[in-house]
Write a structure and sequence with these properties.
heterodimer; A: globular; B: 270 residues; alpha/beta; 5-stranded antiparallel sheet; 17 strands
């Protein structure tokens, strides 16, 4: 096949955006850089303090001793804060042809393409965004980028910021806390149901795709919101480290669903901490798809704090050549009658590696909890690899735990069978892979589901040998 | 493309020759039976026709092995091209493919045939959610579904089976029916049935036979590969080939099948 897919490690790193930033911190990280970021944004003193404290913790924390190989990250060779000019200035034509090609093949509209590729910061659906925004504010829902939220709603931000994931949680949460920029802030008042999924890319903001974005979602009692971030189109970035923090507070009887599809270019370390605190009878659902990046370490977590709280993690990981997806989920049961479910599907191909890493923990006194973990791996060739690292810490006898794991390979006989029906080998592979992830894909918003399937197809068609 | 010509076919697996020069010619609308005892190379013949990658063909006596669809030698072609040129194989023991539903497979295969004939490629046919928006092989998806269901009904295949992963947890009889369903839905000019009759009860055997009769009526050339002549009671073959130890040792009309039923293959094994 001569169909080139940009998700094959063929990005041209030589591509760069013209250097006309409003503000850019120097390379590397020290107190000065942290202070200048905070000062540049005119942040309140407490946030500057928070950042500096986190910076200190970051310096003391060791790199994780488990998971993927992070030894090649050079923290001194990174710009920690770049504020781009208001308008995108590079031309669509300047993008690597593979990127344009993929956008075309996924079939996303022209305007969206330009926005996603960073060519245009003025996404043409600004109008759409504004009308959504006004509908939301009538209900009292706040949907802003995090920097604006800190300016406009400093009290709410201060009340919750860092309460679910403290700076000291891990080295990368400390890093994020010290240099965060962008990300989303969502506040849903008591009893309010937000009917349409809130989509991050409707926010007209270049900071949207930041390196160290910080997202905070608060769902008050009995409310509901579905937040969708990312997109299946490859996100082209010259930044090599993406380290986000997502904190979610699900109050009594509320329900939050958080859907992510990420497809970073293959030079990116994607190290994300995502956690939700779920109170009594609340429900948290993570739907997490990871396709791109060089290394991903991401384990969306649910901390079930109140009786009958429920948490679900659905995770898809795809690792192609030179990729390691270390993904999974965590469910921590603090209260009685809490339930959790982690379903992970991973695909490795062309020498890629996937790992499922998961934790189910039940604290003493949390009675009658139930948890179910299913991890299925599909390995497409001999060079690829998949491992599972499930951890269970159960400190209460009255607990019901199920764990299922399968590893399957696409067999030659399966391929021959499908080919004998007239489809090519690449198509046959993508049919099998799409069938494998279907249970999770059907949970995605429609357009994402379609793009996801297309993308898997592209991956297979672009296969080398 | 109204003849399938197997000519001077020497084939085997990793250097081990199994077929030692097979010649069979099937015309459109004819039903041929290839009969033989176990291990005679019947299934090898079926796999080689579709180009299974584990099998190889050999040059013997200065001539290469050839399989013609019409005037085109298909030996150099990949499996999917052979399929799209109109060759169909109903597998003896088809593998299960979890997640790929019967309906999805039919749709993808139908579309592949349509495209190979220069039809327009739709945006996507594999997403069940969106598929309804698109056409399959130039026909609206609803019409295609009706086509599948009408054949499924004759074969007593339930809607539930169409929605399941192909052959995933299907019984022996169900597998055969699903193979037959594909033979009926996907357009082709020659169909090979590898032991379609094994493991079928009398009712299912009748149903499957009806399918073969229908194909014959449509002008499809059929090769029935079988050990016994059971199915040949329901479908009268035009030609019977007896394959023993990789060679066609006898040929005749339907009466040959009956003789074998009575006396077995002993005569040829001597």
């Amino acid at each position: 096949m001569n169909t080139k897919s940009p998700i094959q490690g063929k990005y041209k790193y030589g591509f760069h955006k013209p250097e006309n930033y409003v503000f850019k911190s120097k390379k590397g990280l020290d107190e000065e850089v942290v202070k200048s970021i905070s000062a540049h944004k005119n942040e309140p003193a407490w946030m500057t303090e928070r950042r500096l404290m986190a910076h200190m913790i970051f310096g003391k924390k060791k790199m994780p001793m488990w998971g993927a190989d992070l030894s090649t990250i050079n923290f001194d060779d990174i710009f920690y804060y770049i504020k781009p000019t208001e308008k995108g200035v590079s031309r669509w034509e300047d993008l690597p042809p593979e990127i344009r090609d993929t956008y075309d093949k996924i079939g996303i509209p022209e305007a969206e393409k330009k926005f996603l590729s960073g060519v245009s910061a003025q996404y043409e659906s600004e109008v759409v965004y504004k009308s959504i925004q006004s509908a939301l504010s009538k209900k009292g829902v706040i949907f802003l980028d995090m920097d604006s939220a800190l300016r406009e709603y400093p009290e709410i931000v201060r009340q919750y910021f860092g309460t679910v994931i403290p700076s000291g949680d891990n080295k990368f949460s400390a890093l994020n806390t010290s240099v965060w920029s962008g990300g989303s802030f969502v506040y849903v008042p008591k009893g309010v149901h937000v009917d349409l999924p809130l989509q991050a890319y409707f926010r007209i903001n270049a900071a949207n795709m930041g390196q160290f974005e910080r997202t905070l979602i608060i769902a008050e009692e009995g409310s509901y919101v579905h937040y969708v971030e990312g997109c299946t189109a490859p996100i082209y970035t010259t930044d090599s480290l993406h380290s986000a923090v997502v904190e979610i507070v699900v109050k009594k009887g509320a329900r939050v669903r958080y859907t992510t599809i990420q497809n970073w270019s293959n030079n990116v370390y994607n190290l994300v901490t995502k956690r939700a605190r779920v109170e009594e009878e609340g429900t948290m659902e993570w739907v997490d798809g990871n396709l791109g990046s060089k290394i991903t370490m991401k384990y969306p977590s649910v901390y079930l704090m109140g009786r009958k709280a429920r948490g679900e993690v659905l995770s898809i990981a795809y690792a192609g050549a030179n990729q390691h997806q270390d993904a999974g989920g965590k469910a921590v049961h603090y209260a009685s009658e809490t339930t959790s479910q982690i379903i992970s599907k991973s695909i490795s191909r062309a020498g890629g590696r996937t790992s499922y890493r998961g934790l189910v923990e039940v604290f003493k006194g949390a009675k009658n909890c139930r948890s179910k973990v299913v991890c299925d791996a599909l390995i497409l060739d001999e060079r690829s690899r998949s491992d599972t690292y499930p951890t269970m810490k159960i400190n209460e006898h009255q607990t019901q735990i199920e764990h299922e794991a399968t590893v399957s390979k696409i067999g030659d006989e399966q391929l021959f069978y499908l080919q004998s029906r007239g489809v090519t080998k690449a198509q046959a592979e993508s049919m099998i892979v799409n069938g494998f992830i279907e249970p999770i894909v059907k949970e995605l918003p429609l357009e994402y589901a379609v793009e996801m399937n297309r993308l898997i197809q592209l991956q297979m068609e672009g296969s080398v040998g | 493309m109204n003849t399938l010509t197997i000519s001077h076919l020497y084939a085997g697996v990793s250097g081990k020759e199994i077929l030692h020069g097979v010649d069979i010619t099937v015309k459109a609308g004819e039903v041929h039976a290839v009969m033989g005892p176990n291990g005679s190379g019947k299934s090898t013949l079926a796999q080689v026709l579709l180009g299974h990658p584990a099998y190889e063909t050999y040059k013997r006596k200065g001539k290469t092995s050839k399989i013609f669809l019409g005037s085109k030698n298909i030996i150099p072609l990949p499996t999917e091209d052979r399929a799209n040129m109109g060759l169909f194989l109903a597998f003896q023991a088809p593998v299960a493919i979890p997640g790929v539903t019967v309906m999805n497979l039919l749709r993808a295969a139908y579309e592949a045939r349509h495209e190979s004939k220069g039809g327009k490629k739709p945006k996507s046919v594999q997403n069940p959610v969106l598929a309804r928006r698109f056409q399959v092989g130039g026909m609206p998806i609803g019409e295609f579904t009706d086509l599948v269901k009408s054949h499924a009904k004759i074969l007593r295949i339930t809607d539930d089976m169409l929605r399941r992963g192909i052959h995933d947890g299907f019984s022996g009889g169900e597998k055969k029916k699903i193979e037959m369903l594909q033979a009926l839905v996907l357009p082709h000019t020659f169909a090979v049935f590898d032991e379609i009759d094994t493991g079928l009860d009398v009712d299912a055997l009748r149903t499957v036979s009806k399918g073969i009769a229908l194909l014959r009526k449509q002008g499809v050339g059929v090769i029935i590969i079988t050990h016994y002549q059971r199915i040949l009671r329901y479908v009268k073959p035009d030609v019977v080939h007896v394959l023993v130890a990789g060679r066609v040792v006898d040929r005749g009309d339907a009466t040959l099948a009956r003789r074998i039923e009575a006396k077995g293959y002993e005569k040829y094994l001597g």
